[in-house]
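Subject: design request, 411 residues
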């Protein structure tokens, strides 16, 4: 931002020759005269850059300083305007260009979406397009409040959003809806089921009728505690079953890694290509369209043209930096590869069983063949496998009450 201000204000490069360059810098500091790009040429000469305004403040003070000050270079908008002040056609073209740029900055040429994770940006941009907001829309006519009321009903997973217009750029800020986990109130009948297969090790039943015992083998999805409770006095009733059930579980997982991999050996060769985007158009500031490097890293840097006050112009400079490297094949030690895979498998197992789970025993098997190391993990764990679900309507169908006669008949 300061660079742009200095460019419009104009600046001059000075070469100051004096026996004591420090006095020149102290003089500037005492009179609040700022400068930048200080460069020491020799023991008695320094070069600095300052704005024309600061140079005007400095000139009356030079008489107190035994120094020779020479202008090396003058740059900025005032210098350019001074050169073209008699070239009326060029000056008129410049004015028309600036006016056209200002008019184009009132239209939207770039739309960015921030804050979305679950909802794709394409869905949000599509909803904006249906509401009449897209590339080429007139920025001052965009009403964030009106858009919010029109678009929110179309996006179920979006809780709030707004559109901030800054020059030719519109930023859509999204806050996605956080869905609360399913809560089971006291009046909702539930059952407890197994989230994994295993052998029951411990059962803590708070409500409901247990369907299994310690030592039983269960499979994933099997009901462990029923929400249907029968009694002679109260008949059949449905309760909110709840329990913690721990089981011993077993896992078999594998992971492989090649022993030979490619590393990047950078050669120090760098090429840069610049592109100016003006609205939807682009101007390449290079002659060769291809890239002579076979293997390279590509870094893209973007810079917007921003006026004082933060107004973004529809002009963007993009620099593409290509860094050449040579692919070098490196071989990994077999023992190192096996240990790395074991660590990865154990870390993945810990995520599977959760923070309350325990790894009781592990056994690794290592296979090496065709330049690949494969590690197999067989582990025994202890984890909490109980989860609740709502009872279905067919499970809660009318059941005749239990009587002594029916109980004897069933026996």
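Subject: RE: design request

Done. Sequence follows.
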């Amino acid at each position: 931002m300061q660079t742009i201000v200095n460019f419009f204000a104009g600046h001059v490069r000075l070469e100051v020759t004096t026996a004591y360059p420090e006095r020149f810098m102290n003089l500037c500091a005492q009179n609040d005269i700022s400068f930048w790009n200080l460069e020491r040429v020799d023991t008695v000469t320094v070069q600095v850059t300052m704005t024309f305004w600061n140079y005007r403040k400095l000139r009356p003070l030079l008489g107190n300083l035994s120094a020779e000050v020479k202008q090396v270079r003058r740059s900025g908008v005032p210098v350019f305007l001074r050169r073209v002040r008699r070239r009326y056609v060029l000056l008129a073209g410049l004015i028309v260009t600036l006016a056209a740029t200002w008019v184009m900055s009132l239209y939207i040429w770039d739309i960015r979406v921030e804050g979305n994770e679950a909802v794709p940006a394409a869905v949000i941009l599509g909803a904006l397009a249906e509401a009449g907001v897209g590339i080429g829309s007139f920025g001052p006519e965009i009403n964030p409040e009106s858009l919010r009321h029109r678009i929110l009903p179309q996006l179920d997973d979006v809780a709030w959003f707004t559109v901030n217009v800054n020059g030719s750029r519109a930023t859509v800020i999204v806050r996605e809806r956080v869905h609360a986990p399913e809560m089971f109130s006291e009046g909702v009948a539930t059952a407890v089921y197994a989230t994994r297969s295993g052998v029951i090790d411990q059962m803590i039943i708070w409500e409901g009728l247990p369907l299994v015992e310690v030592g039983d083998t269960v499979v994933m999805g099997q009901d462990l505690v029923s929400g249907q409770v029968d009694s002679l006095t109260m008949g059949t009733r449905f309760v909110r079953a709840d329990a913690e059930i721990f089981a011993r579980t077993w896992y078999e997982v594998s992971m492989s890694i090649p022993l030979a991999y490619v590393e990047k050996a950078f050669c120090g060769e760098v090429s840069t290509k610049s592109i100016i985007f003006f609205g939807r158009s682009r101007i390449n500031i290079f002659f060769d369209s291809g890239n002579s490097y076979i293997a390279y890293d590509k870094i893209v840097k973007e810079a917007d043209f921003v006026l004082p006050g933060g107004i973004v112009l529809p002009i963007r400079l993009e620099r593409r930096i290509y860094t050449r490297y040579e692919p070098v094949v490196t071989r990994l030690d077999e023992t190192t590869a096996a240990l790395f895979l074991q660590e990865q498998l154990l870390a993945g197992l810990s995520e599977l069983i959760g923070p309350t789970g325990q790894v009781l025993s592990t056994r690794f098997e290592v296979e090496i063949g065709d330049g690949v190391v494969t590690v197999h993990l067989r582990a025994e764990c202890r984890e909490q496998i109980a989860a609740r679900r709502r009872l279905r309507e067919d499970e809660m169908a009318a059941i005749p009450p239990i009587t002594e006669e029916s109980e004897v008949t069933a026996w």
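Residues 110-176 form a domain with the Ubiquitin-like (UB roll) fold (CATH 3.10.20.310).
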